[in-house]
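Progress note, sequence design subtask.
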């Protein structure tokens, strides 16, 4: 509940894979549209079944880096 008003926080990592992503292919399927899904490798590893399902439904999977990180939490060298 603490992050309810923080959509950026909710979209990072797993919320999207559990809640939003299952709804998007259904929306596209209902409209007979293919769609691209760009996914960080970290997320793809942890939600392999979801990624496989999206691919099996005929959608394109694109690589989107390894992991999202908050740049404000990184040092200059880490960034």
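Output:
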């Amino acid at each position: 509940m603490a992050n309810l008003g923080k959509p950026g926080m909710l979209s990072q990592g797993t919320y999207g894979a559990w809640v939003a992503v299952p709804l998007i292919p259904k929306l596209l399927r209902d409209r007979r549209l293919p769609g691209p899904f760009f996914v960080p490798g970290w997320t793809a590893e942890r939600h392999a079944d979801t990624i496989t399902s999206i691919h099996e439904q005929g959608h394109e999977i694109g690589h989107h880096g390894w992991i999202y990180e908050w740049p404000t939490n990184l040092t200059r060298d880490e960034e």
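Helices lie at 7-11, 15-30, 41-46, 48-56. Work on this subtask will continue into the next period as scheduled.
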